[in-house]
Structures are given as structure tokens and as C-alpha cells.
Amino acid sequence: DDVALVDTNHNGKNKRYQLLGGSSPASIGKFVFDPYLLVLSEVQKELVRVTDYASDALVLRLASHRTVSKLHELNSDDIGNTAVTAISLMFMRCRLYAVNSRETNWWVRASLSYMSLLWFTSFHNHRAVGSYAITMLPNKRNMWLETIAVLFLTARDDVSRTRGLTSECNEHFYGMIRTVMNEFNVMQLIRLIDKTQIRLDAIFKGDLTMSRSNATLKGYSATFPEFMKCMKEEASAAEYCGPVHVNLERPAVAQLWSNVHRIIENTNTLMKPFLALFGVDEHNGMSPLLSRPTNSPDDLKALTEEFFRPPPKDKRDYTPGSSDVTSDIIDDGANTTGAAEDEDASDGTGNADSIAATVTKLVSNFISEQQQQEEDEKNNEEDDNESEKDSAVEHFYDSGTSIESGEQVYAELKKMCGSTSISEMSGSAMNIMQLLELGRSEGDKGSTGFDSKVKSFQQRWFRARGPTIQNDEKKQAPTEEDASSIYIERDSLISLTCKRGKASSVEYYRVLAFFTKHYKKWYPSYDPQRFLWDKESKDVRCLVRMLKKNGSSWKEEQLEKDGHFGPSCVFRVCSMNEILSVGERLVGDGVLL
């Protein structure tokens, strides 16, 4: 069977929203990825509330040493959530580095890619709010296939740089011709191809850079100079290639398996006790690659086929003896027509008033988004003007100048996996991120570029008129203090209806993060950081974690084998209108303020 090595940067961008976004929680073991820690750490807003969705560079700047350092310096009391947040960003960076770096040993590439797969496939499966789809599952499957391709390709003696084997070149080509002409027909595309070929010949023969300023590079173009630098260099020495010479007259898998199996076994030995520190075991989300043996290619193939079937139900999310658990599997949402992930379900009756109200809301939202986009573009132009002198090629994937640098990364990862305390994790992740960013920049060279600023079809035809409509965050900002008003902030104690199959009960939760709409996606709110409790509002979502009463204080509900609650009950994303009551604010070990 064939496995494609897709552009790993796409999986990175998808994973970013699954971790940051307010569609569903991103929980692993006993903890959850807490995006609000990034807000409290004062991570740059554009990295968290994303505007440039196509840019690979923004993912790398989010998953960076600087971000993890801020998390470490925050010194939050939520040690477990902080560790999960920092390590998730670290493994995201490791995964991108494994495929895109230039000077890395083959077994380091394979090990980093496989380690990150074990981490991310151990996250729980949560459904998106208002949808039947499981948020992380499609991307987990993409990462699974990508990792298998990396494991087998890197072991070959004719593969030194896996980056040239992905579909990234297609993305850069498409991005490059879109900078010349935003919309084109077939005849225009043929001319664009000729024009682009002339430019590429000039870049390679004249050793030119992509642009005079890196600040003008957006979207796919943000990492294009670094990609071209990688492609212009000569093929790496044999020390970067794998040890196996593949005889094309025999099946390649059988020749490569012994090396691949050694990587799998060594990495499993490291990662299993490491994940156990976070509460990951066979009954609490452990990756199938850890819980099942892979002694042959057939075992790996069987695991892959099983992973692409609908996942099994977690019986803790249903009442004992419920008819809802008669089936061992749940629908993964691939063939359903449920409510859209980020759209509110319609409850209108279809009359003229409800239709008019819906149209008015859509137009208002569109105008607001266009104004926000113009404001973002204006801010970006100001930033560009300030950094026009920076024409150096920014290297995102260089780790030092020798093969030993990648081995140092792996050595630090082994050291982190051998830790016995979660409190040490964020510091270890910070050290690893620092090693991953020991790059260098190019000097000034001549440049060639034909970038042009164009407006989309909607931007050309729809323009805002009249007074400015405030965005969601500004509308939510409190203006006057009212003694009767109730506000919700981080660490507030709230109650929600918890459904387990057909049964339901009222449970208490701690608020961790807030999400508001930003370009039709739910991202963490930067301002305000507390919200007026509106029992009818669907404009704000909250990431919450279940608590249980313990004397006069509150403790976190733990996920245990045969426990009373499962992951979908313990970790939730809810809308403001789902909150039944709001209590006091929690501090320390669950003591009320």
C-alpha cells in the first residue's frame, strides 16, 4: 500500500486551531491544553487570534522558544495544564523540524516525528460544539499517515531531505502566482507559469532573494525564501541519509522494517512512562501504537486500518446499563449532516421577520469582519514600514551548523522523558525549543519579486458604510459596574447540565478560558478578560473543567478507570447561555475567594 508524505505544515496549522480554538477541549490524560495561559503570558496577539491562516511562519513563531519561555516564567499554579501547553507546542515544533530541517540525522528525524505522533494521538476525542464531528480525529489520521511515510523514507540511503518530498513546493508555487494575479483563467495561468519560470531561473542562477523585506511576505510566501534556500543547496552528504539501500526488485517495506521497528520500540520505551506522568494509560486515551504490539508490517497495517474506523465509545460518558452503550463504536462525524461546527443552530420558524433578522445579522457580521480585516492590514503595513531594512532570510528549521545539533535535541528529549515530576517539564521544553532555533540568517543580496496588493471579490464589492460596527470583543467589554450584574472570569465557579447518554445531572465546573469569534472561528479572548453573564448570549464560549466538593473546598474530578465521568464530561467547552449559575471565584487549592 502507498502512503503519501503530505505538506507537514498543513497538519501544523490544523493542529494549532485544534489546540487554541473554542470548538472543543484539547485534553490529554488528567490535564487540558489551556490557551488562556498564552493570553496571561502576553504572547503576541496575532499568533493566538490568527488572521493570516495560510502562513506557516505564524505557527513556528507560536511554537517557539520565546512562547515556551513566557509560559515558564508565568509560574502558574496550574502546573499540569502549563506542562501540557508547553509540551504540545514543543512537539508541534519538533514535528515540523523533523521533516523540514536540512542538517539532521535520519534516526533523529524519524524519532522526533514518531514521538510527536504518540503525544498527539493520546489526546481524547471530543466532539465539536453543535456538531457530530470529532475535532481532532481527521488531523490525527493525517499525522498518522505522514509519520509512517517519514519512518520508512528516512531509513533509505537515497533520501537526505524529506522536505523536498512533500507537497510544500506546490503550495509555494500557488502562493507565488497569486501574488501576481489574484484571479486568472487557463490562458492567463499558462502565461503566469512562463513568468514564474523566468523568475525561478533568475533566483537560482543569480542567487537572488525573494524580496527586499521579509515583512512584505505573507501567507505561503512567509517561508518561501527559506524554502528556496533549502532547495538551492546541493544534496547533503551521506551522513544525513539512512542506512538501507533499497533493491527496487524486492518489496521496500521488508528491507526497511528492521530499522523502522527499532525506532518504534526505542521511542515506545521512552514515551510510555512519560505519558503516564500525565495520567495517560490504556484506559485513558493512550495511543494505539503504545497499547498494541507492532512486531511486523502487518501489525502496523492492521493498527492503521483500525485507527481509521470510528473510535470506540468511552463507557464513562454514559450511565451504567444505558442502551446508548450497546454499540462499541461511535460515529466520527465523517458522513453526518449535523450542525456546522461554528454556526449557531437555527430556532426560527421561517417567517419573514426571522429571515430578515438572519440576513441583517449576516450582513452586519460581514461588514464588521471587513472593517476588522482592513484595520489588521493597516497595522501590518505600519509594521512593514518599520522593518523594511530586514532583508535577511529567516531560517525556521536550522539547528546549529552540524549533525550533532539534532542529536543534542534528541538527547534533551530523552532527558525530559526520564523526568519524574511534571513541574520539570516546562523548563525541559524551553531548553529543547532553544536548541531547535539555533539558526542563522543570510546576508543582504539582490532580490527579485513581483508582489502586488490585490483585493478579493468581496472586498471590491462590499464596503462598510456609516458608523463603525464594533467587533465581538468590544461589544462584550463592560462599561458600567452594576451591583446586580454578575461577571464571569477565569477561576469562576459555575454549574452546567452534564449529560451522560440519556441521563443528565447538574455538575460544577471551573472556568479556564474564554473564546470569542474572530473571522468566523473561536479564538481566546484578549480583551476583555471577564464577561457579563448573559443568560441568552451565544457570543462567548468558555473552556471549563469539572470539580467535586471536598469538605469546604473544591477538587478537580479525576479521570479513572471505571470512573463516574469520562473526558467529554470532565473537560468541556460551553456557551454562555448553557451556564445555570455563577458562584464565587476559586483560588489556590479550590478555596473560594
Note down, in words, how this protein is organized.
The chain has 593 residues and is α+β, with helices and mostly antiparallel strands. The model is unreliable at 335-350, 383-391, 439-452 and 462-479 (pLDDT under 50). The radius of gyration is 25 Å and the shape is globular. The protein has 20 helices and 12 strands. Strands 4, 5, 6, 8, 9, 10, 11 and 12 form an 8-stranded antiparallel beta sheet that branches. Strands 1-2 form a two-stranded antiparallel sheet. Helix 1 runs antiparallel to helix 6.
Helix content: 40-55%
Helix count, DSSP H or I runs of 4 or more residues: 20
Shape designation: globular
Low-confidence stretches: 335-350, 383-391, 439-452, 462-479
Mean pLDDT: 78
N- to C-terminal separation? 60 Å
- Rg (C-alpha, Å): 25 Å
Structural class: alpha+beta
For the biggest sheet, the summary is: 8 strands, antiparallel
Number of β-strand runs: 12
> What fraction of residues sit in β-strands?
5-15%
What key attributes describe this structure?
single chain, 593 residues, two-stranded antiparallel ribbon, eight-stranded antiparallel sheet
Please outline what is shown here.
With 593 residues, the chain is of the alpha+beta class. It has helices spanning 8-20, 36-40, 45-48, 56-62, 65-74, 79-100, 106-120, 137-154, 168-180, 186-206, 224-232, 252-276, 288-291, 297-307, 352-386, 403-417, 425-436, 457-461, 472-476, 567-570; strands at 27-28, 31-32, 487-489, 492-500, 503-518, 521-524, 530-532, 540-550, 553-556, 571-575, 581-587, 591-592.
